[in-house]
Amino acid sequence: SHLLSSQSKGGIHNLTGIPILAAWDFYTKRYDFLRKHFDSGKKYFQFHILQVFNMSVFFPRTTQLTASILEHRVIALSGEDARKLFFSEQGLDLDDGYRLLQGGIPSLGDIDVKDGEVKLDTDFMKRLLLLLHKDRISNVLLDDINRKMKYWGKEGTIDPFQDVYGLAVQMTVRMATCEELAKNQEDIKHLMQHYQDIDESATPVNVLLPWFPSQARKAQGKATRALFTLLQKYVDLRRKAAVPSSDPIDTLIAHGDTDESIVGASMGIIFAGVINTGRNMCWVLLNLGANPEWKVKVANELKALVANHTNTLSQEPFHKRLAAVPLNAWEEELPMLDLVIRETLRITMCFAVLRRNLGRGIPLAGSTINRGDFVTYSLADVHMNPNIYTNPGKFDPGRFMKGKEEDKKAPFAYAAWGAGRHPCPGMRFAKLEIKFVLALFLVGYEFELVDGNGKFPREFPTVDRNDLHQLSAVGETCYLKFKRLIE
Ligand code: HEM
């Protein structure tokens, strides 16, 4: 048995020890776990995860436990060949990989709602995102975030992970649902609490022992039902509306989709969109606060955008003027900000990407990735690789500029927006969201990065690499001290 063995099968090293412990570390300290084994020279290694379904059956006189156990093989990959394989192989499925190995993903299947398990495939996302690539969207989104930013007051201190994050939540809800929900702050608060509860239910026990009636499992069911009810209320509202709108929910209604699939779709998009966009937006601001020379470059570029595309003599409020900037200018005329976003994501997006082989066997190092096997690749293997990125821990947006172009040194050397078969369909929207917030904050405000004592921090926070879901910060907590300059 593999229980206590370490023979290698082909070039894939088999981890020694008790499988449950390897699996436990994989869920609780994923980054450290993968790194420990790669650092000890193993290029590919495998371990097993036991998933226990069912049931203890009580027989008269003899107490007997029966259980159905599924044993999953997980293969961890590193290096360039593996990376190419990981991102290019057709049989490797994204959704199935995350469902078991990540957990915490809201799914209507968990509460037995049929037809609600929407695959957010690229076509579906494209259909929705097309709606947003109308210039009208800048107006609506800038209105939304300006209103929320005004609540911060004329001057003060904000915690980016709370306050800036809230801006991303607002924009994502706006683009994934309808105006009525986007305007209901109470319901948005509830909505986010439900996501948080589902996220916190992703304990190893809950994922590995699906039958076990744990607190986490109960909380997950309760939050998923609440999420469903909340979103369905708005679908219902829009179905009964006298005049259809062009909001996403209305568009899906007009397309003939059922309540369940509309709720499933909105739920999935909010999940996929909020955390990555919200957290990375915070990291962009922290990086600019910590690197004043880049802050100046980006602020100047944004001021030039405003000067070139808006009427500077107009009496309109600043956010209204900003809405006149065409979408293609936001996308094409902010090269310095693009570099800053790119470099921020290289550093934050170092998590383990996951797949499950639903196709034919794939040869690897004299062995085979069988149908049903899981594979994982840590983006840190490429984003923190000193042979590709000089001094990889350093924030240096210049590394992507002409003459250096470090990200062109190897195939798929940059995968913060995904790569190969699964590029992020939300990328354009996410970048726009980040740029809207930065335009308001860098042109409309003065700000500086401070620590708990109000001084420029001596040490900057870094990303908690073991945090599976939140890209949260470790180290000294930092804040943004600001003064609002615009009306
Ligand atoms: C800064 C923001 C974002 C970052 C850094 C980001 C990053 C990524 C990455 C790395 C992947 C690929 C994961 C893998 O290969 O396993 C991905 C996939 C995906 N992203 Fe994003 N994302 C962001 C925002 C968004 C937004 C706003 C949406 C929705 C509106 C979204 C929807 C999706 C979906 C649906 C997929 C799966 C695509 C597929 O199955 O092929 N993302 N994203």
From TrEMBL:
Record SUPFAM superfamilies: Cytochrome P450
GO-annotated molecular function: heme binding; iron ion binding; monooxygenase activity; oxidoreductase activity, acting on paired donors, with incorporation or reduction of molecular oxygen
Entry cofactors: heme
Xref: CDD domains: cytochrome_P450
Top-level taxon of the source organism: Eukaryota
Transit peptide keyword on record: no
Keywords from the named record: Heme, Iron, Metal-binding, Signal
Keyword Lyase part of the UniProt annotation: no
A matching Pfam family: p450
Residues that hold heme according to the record: C424
UniProt xrefs under InterPro entries: CYP450_sterol_14alpha_dmase (IPR050529), Cyt_P450 (IPR001128), Cyt_P450_E_grp-IV (IPR002403), Cyt_P450_sf (IPR036396)
Family of this protein: Belongs to the cytochrome P450 family.
PANTHER family documented for this protein: 24-HYDROXYCHOLESTEROL 7-ALPHA-HYDROXYLASE, CYTOCHROME P450 FAMILY 7
Name used for this protein in its record: Predicted protein
Species the sequence originates in: Laccaria bicolor (strain S238N-H82 / ATCC MYA-4686)
